[in-house]
Design goal:
- There is one protein chain.
- The chain is 28% helix and 28% strand.
- It is an alpha+beta fold.
- The protein has a nine-stranded mixed sheet with strand order 9-10-8-7-6-5-4-3-11, with helices on both faces. The protein has a two-stranded antiparallel sheet with strand order 1-2.
- Strand 3 (40-42) and strand 4 (46-50) form a beta hairpin.
């Protein structure tokens, strides 16, 4: 019986990938097979890269340490209020789901954000039908110990530069509840403009207004520094960037 397509005359231990010895001399790197892991954004103080599984462990520590005061809720779905026994698997499932569902038609990149090597938060950028709409959406959070140091502005400025200068996006959309002035201040500082409001249910039975926001290359208040981007060429197809 032939195994793995081996037929008479095949050289034992050799296939299209080369001999076992050749494979051992060239160890497999996951980024070679999942190009998104080659992507990296660098600002003066931060490094941002798509989450690997080890990164998720560090991010969980940030989340468990608190990413907002207990009496506040900056998210539409109050996921941070789940008991620890539910919060950990729920968070991991969500993070893995974004990776599994990534496709040119709809994608989400979850950047783990590090300062001096330490995980401090998450920056998300997502899009649907990007080749046609040229629009991204962003969201983010920081661990409480790292808030108030300008990291939120720096990581949002980074992802805006990435979207406009490297993905050639024409719009970046975001939103913040009216009772989240910190997020709104970051948006205003970078040039986001009001784009209407939505009335949402944040927690069961709780009505709250969400301020929709939009940023364009024209309104973007650029920082003094230039974003460094590595690895984009490897993942262009996954992000639907091969189309004109």
């Amino acid at each position: 019986m032939a195994l793995c397509g081996m037929v008479k005359g095949d050289e034992p231990g050799r296939n299209e990938m080369g001999s076992f010895a050749e494979v051992q001399e060239q160890p497999m790197v996951l980024a070679d097979y999942w190009p998104l892991f080659q992507l990296r954004l660098t600002t003066p103080r931060l490094t941002m890269a798509p989450l690997t599984d080890p990164d998720m462990v560090d991010l969980l520590a940030v989340i468990l340490g608190g990413i907002h005061p207990p009496d506040q809720m900056p998210f539409v779905a109050p996921w941070t209020q789940a008991p620890r026994a539910e919060l950990i698997p729920n968070t991991l499932q969500f993070l893995w789901k974004q990776r599994v569902e990534l496709a040119p038609q709809k994608w989400t990149i979850l950047f783990g954000v590090r300062h001096e090597g330490r995980m401090v938060g998450l920056q998300e950028v997502s899009a649907s039908s990007f080749a046609v709409r040229r629009t991204v959406e962003t969201g983010s959070y920081l661990g409480i110990p790292f808030q108030g140091r300008g990291f939120g502005t720096e990581m949002r400025a980074a992802v805006a530069q990435f979207a406009f200068d490297h993905l050639l996006a024409e719009r970046a959309e975001s939103a913040a509840f009216l009772d989240n002035p910190t997020s709104q201040r970051v948006s205003a500082k970078l040039g986001y403009l009001p784009n209407g409001q939505q009335l949402l249910e944040r927690r069961e039975g709780e009505r709250v207004l969400s301020q929709e926001l939009v940023l364009t290359p024209v309104t973007f208040v650029r920082p003094a520094w230039e974003l460094q981007v590595e690895g984009l060429a490897a993942c262009r197809a996954e992000l639907g960037l091969n189309q004109p």
